């Protein structure tokens, strides 16, 4: 019996028994856990330097934030170091984590899907860095100024717990990195034929409203910070429409 599938679409790897897949999954999870654990141990001595980087946007706003940030618990410094080490390890080990995950799923993909996923991973990494950089350079200082101005408006002297500031900053940066992955998801769905450029144009208004809702949830409760997140997402959404439409024209041609 012959198949009409192009050679490029045929899965090359022979199917494995279910138990073999479970064994591969177990090995993948162990490799990922070991990679993260090794990165976590390596990140512990770097925690003070990473904290200086996280504190730098507040330095730009206040000039000297040392009397401003306080630790009110005996184990506050240890808890802070562990939190910073955890997030540093997660970011540093993410390329290996993605590699192990991709190595697990690649045998079940066609050659075309493998190329698509490989390119998407590169684009996802670049967009994540772009989102975090934008959050660090623009949004975090802006959000801190707004939070401080609200304290002044309410007549409250701001004295922040250092752990609270670190969590606030890291959550904001992580949120920017993750939401900038939206174009990668849309382009993958477009390349696989799940969505069409016409659909994205048709539901553009709904998508824009959803982006502003996401920005409102993931950012501090002020309009400027939400705009800083939402407007680039709208621009990236338009870029996705153009990329998907260009791919459709090539396939039709």
List keywords for this structure.
disordered N terminus, 2 strands, 253 residues, mainly alpha, single chain, two-stranded parallel ribbon, 2% strand
Q: What's the overall geometry?
A: flat
- Total strands: the figure is 2
**CA(first)-CA(last) distance:** 31 Å
Largest sheet: 2 strands, parallel
Structural class designation: mainly alpha
Computed CA radius of gyration, to the nearest angstrom: 22 Å
The mean pLDDT is 82
* Distinct helical segment count: 9
- Order of secondary-structure elements: HHEHHEHHHHH
Q: Give the DSSP E fraction (strand runs of 2 or more residues).
A: under 5%
Low-pLDDT runs: 1-5, 7-11
Tell me roughly what share of residues is in helical segments.
over 70%
Record the strand order, biggest sheet.
1-2
Brief summary:
By secondary structure, the protein is mostly helical.
What does the model show?
By secondary structure, the protein is mostly helical. The protein is 77% helix and 2% strand. The longest helix is centred in the middle third of the chain and has 44 residues, at 111-154. It is flat. The two termini are 31 Å apart. 20% of the residues are buried.
Compile the SSE list and pairings.
Elements: H1 18-43, H2 47-62, E1 69-70, H3 76-105, H4 111-154, E2 160-161, H5 162-179, H6 182-191, H7 197-202, H8 204-218, H9 223-252
